[in-house]
Amino acid sequence: MIRELDAAMETLARVVRDTTGCEIASIPYAGAAGGVGAGLVAFCRANLVSGVDYILDAVRFDDALQACDIVLTAEGSLDSQTQQGKAIAGIAARARAHRKPVHVLAGRLLGNPATLCRTLGLACVRAISPKDLPLADAMTNARQLLNDATELFQTEVRKARQR
After folding, report:
1. The three-state (H, E, C) secondary structure of 30-66, written as one string
2. How many other CB atoms are found less than 10 A from the CB of residue 33?
3. Are residues 79 and 116 in the same domain?
4. Is the pTM here over 0.85, yes or no?
């Protein structure tokens, strides 16, 4: 199935190139949202930008970084794809530039937490739900699990500041 999809995508890229002169296969961000960006570039002459950078600029994230000590954020799943465009990677890069530690609460941790911290430049990552909790249960109880994880994090920060 994957080979068939790859072959179809190569065919699509070739047809678009031959029709419009646009080389969609090499455009950054063009594959996001199922390739919507590629179509917008090829047929509407759109300019694509990083979604996370666009949003962080819109909410004046860098200004907020000036006024904080740490960054606490959350992600549904923290895994090998996180560096390839998920919001956490963009948040971590901006925070690093301001020397602010980033702490992540993740619904699922797929991979070694120490490796994820090292590769993404995070201070720490914590799972919101236990590994053995079925996904359906985690989603049903997401609000309580996130509340519990946040409260535990706040308690740990308070204790660390008292030392």
Report:
1. CCHHHHHHHHHHHHHCCCCCCHHHHHHHHCCHHHHHH
2. 12
3. yes
4. no
- What the block records as the tokens of 92 is 């971590």
**Burial degree of 140 (CB within 10 A; 0-12, 13-18, 19+):** exposed
> How much is the average pLDDT of 4-19?
88
Give the residue among 82, 149, 73 at the shortest CA–CA distance from 104.
73
Task: Note down the domain range covering 28.
Answer: 2-44
- Structure tokens that stand for 144 in this block: 């309580």
Per-residue pLDDT tens digits for 58-88: 999 999 999 999 999 998 888 777 767 678 8
Please give the tally of structural domains in the chain. 2
Q: Do 91 and 137 sit in the same domain of this protein?
A: yes
**72 and 135 assigned to the same domain:** yes
pLDDT band at 105 (very low <50, low <70, confident <90, very high): very high
